[in-house]
Amino acid sequence: MKLKSFALTSVTFCFTAICGIPSVQAATLTKIVDGISNARGVSFGPDGTLYVAEPGIGGNGNCQPSPSTLFQPICAGNSGSLVKVTPGGQPQRILTNFQSLAEQPSGNQGAGIQDIQFDSLGNAYLLTGFAGYPGNRDLETLNLGSQFPLPPQQLATFPPSTPDKVLNTPLLAQLYKVDLNTGKLDSIFDFAKYEITNNPDGGDVVTNPYDLSISGDSAYVVDGGGNTAYKIKLDGSESQAIAIPKNIISKSDLPPGLEVPPGLLDELPGGKIAIQSVPTGGVIGPDGALYVGEYTGFPYPEDKSRIFRIGEDGNPEVYLDGFTHITDLTFDEDGNLLVLQFSDTSQLGGDITNLPGSLIKVAADGTRTTLVAAGQGLDSADGIDIGPDGKIYITNRGVGAGLGEVVRVDGLVAETIPEPGSVAGLLALASVGATAAMGKRKRLPKLDEELVAKAETV
């Protein structure tokens, strides 16, 4: 398929074998590809090909209010794609003209193709987002939604659309098995329909599938709109939805004079409030459990983001806390948990396209090491994966039209800071470290032994 002209002039390419390994003693970021609109998940195929999800910049179609934009409208278009970069070739866009939603005219806060992952046989699976009331997605779900009317407090915030105002984006809010050669999509699970009929977290009826992991015969999806983690059989035969609990904080954590839109926060006794979790990152740990990181909803407090561990019993337990705006998680080859922070400060009052974030490594003993600190090049970072070369790859500048890029983290760690989280988290980390040699990352490529050997000498 023909590439879109708006990105051809700015897409660049570089791999370790070509560019070499820097010898500096602090982490540096090497740009791999850029010119991506609202860049999301990054992953590697079984042959080492790099893929980047590009939700796109929406278009001039129908619009809906979105909680992701504090209820500013996001509008439909066909501007999404999947960016593909082979280990020895040039980047190209596939699955072009894919359905997309974003703010207009800025093109910020895109929802569309969110993530791609591969199973152990090399089959590809595609996740699409939505970021709004699922009854507005298409005529079919609109009619379905009319059978399940929203409570009065919801109607003002997420009014169901009318048939001539539906977004006409039926490909969004779904999990697919995808043929990357032909573009054929086979739907495995429809999050929009499930949210309307089940509403797992019991709150507002919103869906925004955000992050995908594959392990064995199951897909694990984190839905930031529905505040839910899903386990779905890859053949579509079974599914399980687990609600992520709200975050209880003190009113004193709110910025002075903050005006709160009605219905966003729950007032609790003792000067407490409950804010939505907004889970955004997930990964299967070395122990087989699902780990889920949260961004936290409005008013986006600092140092309040949690990481949950969901074991075989299906109960989400707080594993670690004290983070800010987590967007993705992964485990490295040594069993260390890597935590990507979209920003280190609250997004309120800031430019969401340029919020300095960081990358934190959590060791088995609970020690937190800042691999990339705020101000060292990560801004509004949104996705993370480990490459076949053993290096860390991050989607950076994940908000905005054509601003996104993938960077590789090179160099050595400069500073280690003990930052214990919850007691439960520290105990759980110890057990993870004991089984790290048997662990699985978000995706499981066959590693190139020569590249790994080179990486281990740095």
Please characterize this protein's 3D structure.
By secondary structure, the chain is mainly beta. It has a single domain (5-456), classed as Neuraminidase. 10% of the residues lie in helices and 36% in strands. The protein has seven helices and 28 strands. The chain has helices at 5-8, 16-19, 139-145, 152-155, 191-198, 423-434, 449-456; strands at 28-36, 42-44, 50-54, 63-65, 73-85, 92-103, 113-118, 124-128, 174-178, 185-190, 209-215, 218-223, 228-233, 239-243, 247-250, 266-268, 272-275, 279-284, 290-294, 305-310, 316-323, 326-331, 337-341, 358-362, 368-372, 383-386, 392-396, 404-410. Strands 2, 3, 4, 5 and 6 form a five-stranded antiparallel beta sheet that branches. A four-stranded antiparallel beta sheet has the order 1-28-27-26, with no helix packed on it. A four-stranded antiparallel beta sheet has the order 7-8-9-10. The radius of gyration is 21 Å and the shape is globular. The relative contact order is 0.14. The model is unreliable at 1-25, 145-163, 412-441 and 443-458 (pLDDT under 50).
How is the topology of this model organized?
Blueprint lengths: L4 H4 L7 H4 L8 E9 L5 E3 L5 E5 L8 E3 L7 E13 L6 E12 L9 E6 L5 E5 L10 H7 L6 H4 L18 E5 L6 E6 H8 L10 E7 L2 E6 L4 E6 L5 E5 L3 E4 L15 E3 L3 E4 L3 E6 L5 E5 L10 E6 L5 E8 L2 E6 L5 E5 L16 E5 L5 E5 L10 E4 L5 E5 L7 E7 L12 H12 L14 H8 L2
Antiparallel strand pairs: 1-28, 2-3, 3-5, 4-5, 5-6, 7-8, 8-9, 9-10, 11-12, 12-13, 13-14, 15-17, 16-17, 18-19, 19-20, 20-21, 22-23, 23-24, 24-25, 26-27, 27-28
